[in-house]
Amino acid sequence: MSEHGLTTSNGNLVESSRTGKMPRSVTMFLSLVACVWLGTSALSTAQSEDKTAPSEIRAQKFVVVDDNGKELAEFGIGSNGQPSMAVWNKGKSMVASMGMDNAGMPRFAFEKSSGEPLLELGVMDGRFPVFFLRNDKGERRLGMVVADGGSVGIGLYDRGKRDRCMLSLRRDGHPQITLKDDKGKVRASITLDDEGTCALDLLNRKEQERIVFQVDAQGQADAAVFGPDGKATWSAGKP
């Protein structure tokens, strides 16, 4: 800075306010700023007064990033061609997702970054709400379903993805506990009917009753043992 004005990059002096004249470059810059400001103001005013602005935005994907540009969430089309939304932690070790499965049914899940779901909530066969808990390998270990007629079931699964124990409330309101073997065959069940009779059935690998214990609402008990042909070989209790 000199007493005569501004020193440019080439060392020349430019006349300043001492002469009352403004440099052409400064004048052009201020004119440009004024034009941009006036245009922006006019556009802002027009948008605020425009009641016919578009009510929707069309896009294939939205991505959310943090201050460092790290992706933390996205909403778009998933690998199965269905719409989906996912959010994850900064290490991407855990993911929460919501969208449609391959059949077009809604699905909500907590997953590991490698893709194994730990928790799932969805719709089975387009009708029944289901809930599954899985281990860290993605293997189903517990499931809950509300089926036709309002029956409710809770299933426990082994590492072979087989349901081994089922606690259910049937559509008629009768509670039942069912145990299955590694072949999926029912081997034992406990039921309670509307008349208050509680029964324990033990079955063979062909799901044939072999031993039955019952206690009715009056407290009377009876038991029976059946042979492979289904005929009773021993009984006690009620005549």
Instruction: Write down the domain tally.
Output: 2
Q: Provide the residue-averaged pLDDT.
A: 80
**Could you say what the CATH architecture of the largest domain is?**
Alpha-Beta Complex
Q: Which sheet architecture does the biggest sheet show?
A: 16 strands, antiparallel
Q: What is the CATH T-level topology of the largest domain? A: Outer Surface Protein A, domain 3
β content, as a range?
A: over 45%
Strand order of the largest sheet: 3-4-5-6-7-8-9-10-11-12-13-14-15-16-17-18
Distance between the termini: 120 Å
Helix proportion range: 10-25%
Strand elements, count: 18
Can you walk through the features of this model?
The chain has 239 residues and is mainly β. It folds into 2 domains: 5-49; 92-236, Alpha-Beta Complex (Outer Surface Protein A, domain 3), CATH 3.90.930.1. It is built from 1 helix and 18 strands. The chain has one helix at 24-49; strands at residues 5-7, 13-15, 61-65, 71-77, 83-88, 94-100, 106-112, 117-124, 128-134, 140-146, 152-157, 163-169, 175-180, 186-192, 198-203, 209-215, 221-226, 232-236. A 16-stranded antiparallel β-sheet has the order 3-4-5-6-7-8-9-10-11-12-13-14-15-16-17-18, with no helix packed on it. Strands 1-2 form a two-stranded antiparallel sheet. A hairpin with a 5-residue loop joins β5 (83-88) and β6 (94-100). The longest helix has 26 residues, at 24-49. Residues 1-20 and 25-30 have low confidence and may be disordered.
